[in-house]
Amino acid sequence: MDLFSTGLIEITDDEFALISKLIYDKVGINLTDKKKSLVKGRLNKLVKDLNFKTFKEYYNFVVNDLTGQSLINLVDKISTNHSYFFREKDHFDYLKDYILKEIVEKQKLLNSNQIKIWCAGCASGEEAYTIAMIINEFFGLDMPKWDVKILATDISITTLKAATEGIYIKDKVVGIPENLKTKYFKNIDSEHIQVSDSLKKMILFKRLNLMNEDFPFKGKFNMIFCRNVMIYFDKETKDKLVTRFYRYIENDGYLFIGHSESLGRETLFFKYIKPALYKRMYI
Ligand SMILES: C[S@@+](CC[C@H](N)C(=O)[O-])C[C@H]1O[C@@H](n2cnc3c(N)ncnc32)[C@H](O)[C@@H]1O
Questions:
Q1: What domains does the chain contain, in order, with CATH numbers?
Q2: Is the entire prediction scored with pTM above 0.85?
Q3: Pairing mode, if any, of strands 167-169 and 192-195?
Q4: Long-range contacts of 57-63 (CB under 8 A, 24+ apart)
């Protein structure tokens, strides 16, 4: 090895263009030229482990793998799955203080005890478990009277596996209030805690690609959380996705997005409520 070499396989502009187009076409993630070194860094070990000398060889392998497994592995490496409990906390405060009350009133009028929530782009589960804790705390002893379903989906298999296990490093769950940590988590060992079965039971984790033209849902959701996901999409992809979300939210239902994201033109379908929170309009 060259004394000054990093030991990393280099990626050419053409190779980067091929891989970024594949990712864009399959999962909508928009890898601009600035992401070239990120792609090189995140894929290097995978490419080497597969004994390829170049990214072009690796690319050919992925597109010719008819099982689709290599593409799944590629997306797992490229997607950014960072998340944490009570992220953008004012969303959860608003959920507790306003939205749940409103939904309860509405469902009572409809003679329904159902609340359906979709957490789209749930990463390792922190967001879905936070919602579950808020709902449990809100209903308290009345919880068994309500049929609350949280669907949590992501494209990344690795991250969904972590979400389903619900095991987290103690040092990284600082956002959870102590009383909730005691109530909804159990100690696994000196470094890890695990989410209680009572929260797990409320959530169904599933792999789902948000780029699908249609989603296989029977009913509509009272709320969709899609936070810090569309930040990786370009405007066209985001506009189309928000239009699809519209079809799957109840009238007067809510769409939560990340605080660094905005809806722009599509607010025709959604009314702005507060930063990163929109309500579905009747049209
Ligand atoms: C940064 S995380 C956001 C996690 C959580 N919503 C939050 O705000 O903390 C973004 C997630 O979006 C997922 N994602 C990206 N593209 C996707 C797609 N096309 N379909 C489904 N999930 C996708 C990634 O795998 C990743 O886990």
A1: 13-78 (1.10.155.10), 90-280 (3.40.50.150)
A2: yes
A3: antiparallel
A4: 59/15, 59/18, 59/19, 59/22, 62/22, 63/22
Of 92, 119, 155, 207, the residue with max ligand 1 atoms within 8 A of its CB, to mutate for a pocket test, comes to 155
Q: Is 253 in the pocket of ligand 1 (CB under 6 A)?
A: no
* Strand 249-257 to 277-280 pairing: antiparallel
Could you read off the pLDDT of 261-282 as tens digits, one per residue? 988 755 678 999 999 999 998 7
Q: Cα of 244 to ligand 1 centre, how many Å?
A: 17
Q: What is the pLDDT of residues 229-262, one digit of tens each?
A: 999 999 999 999 999 999 999 999 999 999 999 8
**Tokens at residue 228, please?**
């810090």
